[in-house]
Design goal:
The chain is α/β, with parallel strands linked by helices and 329 residues long. It has helices spanning 3-25, 94-107, 133-142, 151-163, 181-192, 196-199, 209-221, 243-263, 275-287, and strands at residues 35-42, 57-61, 64-66, 68-72, 78-85, 113-119, 123-130, 169-176, 224-229, 268-269, 291-295, 306-313, 319-321, 325-327. The chain has two domains: 38-73 and 290-327, no CATH class; 78-287, von Willebrand factor, type A domain (Rossmann fold), CATH 3.40.50. Strands 7-6-5-8-9-10 form a six-stranded mixed beta sheet, sandwiched between helices. A four-stranded antiparallel beta sheet has the order 4-11-1-13, with helices on one face. The chain has a four-stranded antiparallel beta sheet with strand order 3-2-12-14, with no helix packed on it.
Length: 329
């Protein structure tokens, strides 16, 4: 073979390999015309109801009844991302975090796929989705770090990983005090030019680009997010907290509440470190009682407006909970 032909063949092969790699790296698109709802149902005493069928649910969007396209019972498996805050504020109780994380994994079903993500100065994938509990446990033992709190980058990263889980049911449980370093720095810069009398109501927690991105992406995939709020970073524990410190912390907690409410999850505040194991188990149990309902909206306009979602159960004595709605983008 001549050297010119060899170079030509190598060029063709290189182009083919590059195209294949590019194809593998393309993100999997989520069909935004389908709305997915993870739904919890309890009785008047708060006890979960797990034996309902598709016929027991009715979905309304902006008050208009929708046709249910698909239904999955509470026994259907989940893909779950466990996000661990390994920033400097958690150095003193890593052992409790690890114990709690192990208990959470044990409470899931064997068919549930779990990925482990840690964040501090960096966001690291410790373990990709797997049902291998030993592999997950080994990854938890590797969690370590210190430095900044990259909370919303970790959520965005986790949603990217979940997008590749295709049509599986999806949830995120994130352990953090909620004080994202980059967002807090923006809050601080904003407050610097204000007087003390303006500070308490000046920050609008929902007005954050990266928060909006996380919420829109969770809407598109139907991901339920459960924040576990650590008792660290609270300026109320300081002798003389400043008005700015209090305002920034309250905004951070409000953003965690927004994430939970918008995605249909719940914000669980850890008041004492001893509560951490219990709360992890509580969230695992809640995930295991969720139904999943999908529908294609009768209103097909993608106008960016808010659509309110409500889901009713045939038995009026039962109480259902899901996400509040979504922006039609």
């Amino acid at each position: 073979m001549s050297s010119r032909k060899a170079v030509f063949l190598l060029s063709i092969i290189s182009l083919a390999v590059a195209a294949a790699v590019a194809q593998d790296d393309d993100p999997i698109r989520v069909d935004s015309s389908i709305v997915r709802l993870n739904v919890g149902v309890v009785d008047q005493r708060g006890r979960p109801i797990t034996n309902l069928t598709r016929a027991d649910f009715t979905v309304y969007e902006d008050g208009v009844k929708q046709e249910i396209a698909s239904f999955e019972p509470s026994t259907a498996p989940f893909s779950v991302v466990m996000i661990l805050d390994m920033s400097g504020s958690t150095l003193g109780f890593r052992q409790v975090i690890m114990l709690s994380a192990f208990r959470f994994i044990d409470a899931l079903l064997p068919e549930d796929r779990v990925a482990v993500v840690e964040f501090y100065d960096k966001v690291n994938l410790l373990n990709d989705f797997t049902t291998n509990r030993r592999s997950i446990g080994n990854s938890l033992n590797l969690a370590n770090g210190r430095g900044k709190t990259q909370l919303f980058k970790a959520l965005d990263f986790s949603l990217d990983k979940l997008s590749k889980e295709k049509s599986r049911r999806k949830a995120i449980i994130v352990l953090t005090d909620g004080v994202d370093t980059a967002v807090r720095d923006k809050d601080r810069q904003f407050l610097e030019r204000l007087s003390d009398t303006q500070i308490s109501t000046a920050i609008k927690p929902e007005a954050s680009d990266i928060l909006s991105r996380v919420l829109d992406r969770s809407d598109a995939q139907g991901v339920t997010i459960y924040p576990l709020a650590l008792p660290t970073g609270d300026p109320g524990k300081l002798a003389e907290p400043t008005l700015r410190q209090v305002a920034m912390y309250q905004a951070a907690r409000s953003r965690l509440k927004i994430v939970a409410d918008r995605t249909g999850g719940s914000l669980n505040a850890i008041k004492n470190l001893e509560d951490m194991v219990k709360l992890y188990s509580t969230v695992a149990a809640e995930i295991r009682t969720l139904y999943t309902v999908e529908y294609s909206p009768a209103n097909t306009k993608r106008d960016g407006k808010w659509r309110t979602v409500r889901i009713d159960v045939t038995n009026p004595a039962l109480i259902s909970r899901t996400r509040q709605g979504y922006f039609a983008k």
